[in-house]
Fold these 3 entries.
Entry 1:
Amino acid sequence: MLSVNKTKFCQGVSDISDSYAGFIIDQWGVLHDGEKPYEGVVECLRELKSRGKFIIVLSNSGKRAQVNKERLKAIGIAPTLYDEIVTSGEMAWQGMKNQDEGFFRNLGKKCYLISRGGDRSIVDGLDVELVDDIKKADFLLISGADSPEMSLEDYEPILKAAVRKQMKAICANPDSMGVMGEMNIMGPGTLARRYSDFGGVVHYIGKPHQPIFQKCIQMLQAKEIYPGQTVIIGDTMAHDILGGTLVNIDTALVRTGLHAGAFRGTKTPADVDKALNILSAQYNNIRPKYLLHTLKWGKALPDRKHKKRALKEV
């Protein structure tokens, strides 16, 4: 059984910034809500960069890294505010390009793609042919879902047809739920799990699975930053907090994003701790090391000295 020590409640990232050189930060639900950055995010990233922190944006996005970089820039998060961006879509693209190891070996060239809004960028530049008839495909690629316009049941005929053909499936975004504005929407991971329910074989790329975290660790070690000097900040227990725990990196959960509802109505530290206990019980009793309300810096430091803030532990 996995477990961590009591969670420390923080006023902002300034409470923990002196303790870490590397920051791995989730995208949806932490940096933005799919439409705009959360209040204080840009200022927080700017403060971290001014202190020489190495920042990796880590996302279960089914799109490639460059596409995500452009999207972040479009909503006001400039590339100068972080150092690297790692996405499950990018790792899937690399695997499909090479097709030389593990699940990707001899995958085939004909792909049936399930994506959001008909987006095909995940196969751009690949020697892969997209087919509209699932019966003609060599493999199934799930990178997005048209939720809420389409329901899980709407996808089931395609999933069943692929299972009947004993087709391999790649899920380039394991998120079961996603954040879009004020609502949670079905994620592609839900489609992949239904495919498994029907008897299909799925290869998941992204959090909480270790390869994508190991990719981040390699980037950090190239800068002589090691796991003990790194913190992961995310909004989901199932992906960010579990994944970080599995690779022995400290974690911080933000109350925005996917678990916002779990903290609704909490007024005292005891209320918040009770909400965390409920979440922890649902995820093998793991707990984040820190809890943040949002990804904000906290109170300003007029002299910009690196002073540690007191942490309230409950």
Entry 2:
Amino acid sequence: MAKNFDELLSGLGNYSTKKIAVAVAQDKAVLEAVKIAKERKIADAILVGDADEIKKIGAELGMNMDEYEIIDEKDITEASLKAVSLVHDGKAEIYMKGLLPSSTFLKSVLNKEVGLRTGKPLSHVCVFELPGFDRLLFLTDVAFMPYPTLEDKKCMIDYTVDVAEACGVTNPKVAVLAALETVNEKMPCTLDAAELTKMNDAGEISRCVVDGPLSMDIALYREAAEEKGALDRKVAGDADILLFPDIHAGNLVYKSIVHMVPCRNGNILTGTKGPVILTSRSDSVDVKVNSIALAAVVAEKMKK
């Protein structure tokens, strides 16, 4: 089990080198992350976009551009469609966002002819390496699904368990979060949490332990669980996966951690035919490399 991103990255040496299709690749941080991934033999890349700009930025980064396949397409919509079709057609395993709006990128993911739709909802998974924790933490959804239904949340658990298993976590513990740890009919998310727990007990949700509703302190800290008399909860103080009730809760926690805590993280979009890396332009090179690593282990799991 990888306890941090260094262990995750080092473990990738046991896998075959993956292929990334990058849409609108003329982005310095993205190309630097691609360069690092290639040097570490995590993944090679097919770069789709403005070839002149890609080569110019690559030269500035000291990349040997003769080692990369470059597909020249200056129109960003067409570039995104050409890049996603590479994954759709099995010529690449991972799809990565470059210098284009997220809306355009997502339209290519959902394209009926060359996209990566599975018929299931899409969801975002963020993985954190945090000080004081002896394990990686998996958060969903902090960036994509606004108000997930009960069925959406079931899918989100399945997707995140897939990512956790790819990182070596067996039977991960899932905390279905709410503002309190008891069911309140005036708070629908607590009803969903209780129902998801029942579905897990009945075997409808498998490969994990689900418990909710749980407050975040009980989910992560045994001291808090002990103080509140909640040590009998299945996930007390030991959660691997945090399932948020909606995007507001998830995004607020995500941004609080990123901006206030020394940490490392990586992100992928799930529910697609292949791993999709949807990072922000403001994300560091380290975040993009970590996201490539996550996508690579998930791609390996999907292959098996």
Entry 3:
Amino acid sequence: MRSKPRVPPAARRRRRGSVYVLVLLAIIVCSVMLVSALDLVRSRHRFAGHTSDYFQANANAAAGLELALRDIESTPAWRWAPGDGAWYTDLAMPGGGAVSVKVSGSSSALSTDATTPALITSIGTHGSTRAIQQVSVGLLTEGGPPITGPSTGASGLLAWWPLDGAGPAWCDEAITGAAGSDEKFGAGTTYPGAFPSPGLTAAPWFWSGSSASLDSSASCNSVRTISFWFYADSTSSLQYLLERENLRITPGEWAFYLSGGEITAEYVGKVLLLVPVIASTSAPVTADRWHHVVLVAESSRIVLYIDGVGADSDSAPGSDYWNGSGLPDLRVSGQDGLLGTLLGPFTGSVCDVMILASPMSATDVAALHSAYRAPGEYRILADSFSRAVR
């Protein structure tokens, strides 16, 4: 029987040491691979987190733009309130993060001129990412020439009160015709040039008891046609739109007011034993849209036109009932010149007031209405800037 060869102790020690080295190397390699795998997982998690922050921050910035555009659409006086400056600051968002929105005039203050484009800057944040988006919003119209006083043709323009409110000194409007140029404003806040209007670029917004009046000359006391545009926030409550009336006791006075979903136009004729004879016409009107109103004083009746179409009439309240003397100023929003009080203050817009010396025919009224271009509206002019940064 052969015996196993003897291995010297030193050789056995060398072999055992080699095994230890191999095991140690294997452990080191495995550790490196494990650490690398963990770093890769952490890197992917960080990348996924940054990607999520990126998209959520952009979504927050876009939501801020939508909030500002909604406010512009629903708030006629947005150029004045809130006007230039921060509209939202660190507003918490449902998906996490926040948004801040700032609005400013691109070339001058928003309240200076209604034609100045507005620059909306929205900053959305989420995690370590901030997204910035900007758009420019401006007043655009459908084109076509503006309506002016001479557009009334041969109807004998006595006065044309644009009520456009453009420019910082909007009390110095270019009043056309035989009327005083002194515009006056009562208590409350009137936002000039706040609202897109037909035929012009913008019109004032009356609210919270604000009013305006035009110092009319005596040559405007014999009025046969009154034309104007209005936009009402509501038509249910009593609201005086436009008038030259004091206590309804003087021939030649007239007034327009809203109530119960209708507009009423009246003319005061002769006065018998201190009791005035009044002709009155009414027609339904809708809130939140522009209406063109024309009242014509014919020899035997008054006729009310709404949006170019005859809506109602009434028999004349006497002969030459349109002739008056000592009449008050033209007033918007129920400011009574004699009593010095507000009677049915109006919330909405009035513009393009014309008073004429001759009665317009139905054909003339329809032609005047169709000549106005569609109202302007605020639209996005440019998507000027968008980025996200860590």
